[in-house]
Amino acid sequence: AMALCLKQVFNKDKTFRPRKKFEPGTQRFELYKKAQASLKSGLDLKAVVQLPPGESINDWIAVHVVDFFNRINLIYGTMSEYCTERSCPIMSGGLKYEYRWQDDSKYKKPTKLSAPQYMCMLMDWIEMLINNEDVFPTRIGVPFPKQFQQVCTKILTRLFRVFVHVYIHHFDSIINMGAEAHVNTCYKHFYYFIREFSLIDHRELEPL
To answer: Recorded GO terms, molecular function (predicted)?
Structure first.
């Protein structure tokens, strides 16, 4: 019953954004399948995140960034009805942490936004990056840009803030939906991954 309930929760197609998929037949698709298989086999999550022998670190990071984007997108999408301008006028993680939005186009300076606005800007921004062939090349033999890992650090740092907000402000909704185990597993997987490759400044991790 629990599995069924989870399936309903996470199949509501409430993803905030269309899912990015890897093309079958590409190296990255094979890597994605490998990562998913070891995840499903119930292996220790610390082992699951380790770079498989002979694989490129950038490919491995790319596959995970896209997968985490899809999954966190889904988690936030299922609870976005509880995260409103009224309930969350500030994008925060408790009383101590407030996150401001900044990008290269509309918000050149760090700007206070409500949580739903911040989430919207964030998901749009990540989606634009992962669909940009110059940043996340999908064709075999096309190299990653020099600043690829820096871009991924920025994406993952901001995705971590979604966990912070959801855990601190909406945990009761997660429990009510029966999605606690799913969210916890996703968070653990994310956490072990960023620690394995030192992808987020440890100060960012303090709220959780």
So the answer is: kinase activity
